[in-house]
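Appendix B, example 12.
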Amino acid sequence: MLEGKVAIITGAAKGIGKAIALEFARKGANLVIGDLSEEVEKTKKEVEALGVKCAAVKADVTKLEDVQKMVDIAIQEFGRIDILVNNAGIYPFKSFVEMEEEDWDKVMNVNLKGVFYCTKAVVNKMIEQKSGVIINIASIAGHEVGFRGLTHYSATKAGVVGFTKALALELAPHGIRVVAVAPGPIETPGTSALDEETYEQMKKMIPLGRWGKPEEIAKLVAFLASDDAGFITGTCVVADGGFAVQ
């Protein structure tokens, strides 16, 4: 499905990003994976065990030099960039009343400016190739619903969706597709911080009766990155177990 493609995936040390990296590897893609965590090296080993090539970079998407390093490695190792998955993101819960400017700026820089930096770094190569797919991981927060304590997060994810739609129009003439994915409640290392009562309350609000799995988002992203989704661009695909339709 992705045989021989070259993908850059951010935030790939754990959770959804790691699941995407492993799914892409199973589909035959060679990878450059980035993350602030040293655990990105563990993901690299698991990816390589699936028979594809992988370069791991300790990268902060808010730093241009780190972003450029990922892109340079992709070009040096593989000569092209077919797919970018902007997955890196943070969601520190904090009430708006207690929120300080630095809290706001940190989330904006990672979740929104990081998407800008990474996309800007790959887009000229994709234009040169006359092909490419950019997939931005958004959220139902900001796109479909709101959550208390996440005004900064919701603002960034709404921004990611708007960015996706506008960029898709600009890049379509170059044969480049841009798509967003909006996951609902997904079981990741980050959700382990929730107490059991909150976890169960959330589960009751999901029509399918369970939290989603990172692997389910990864399979969706792999499809959208493939040629099978060649007529899909400029949209946001929701995967939330029905949460937002209640």
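The chain has one domain: 6-185+214-238. The mean pLDDT is 96.
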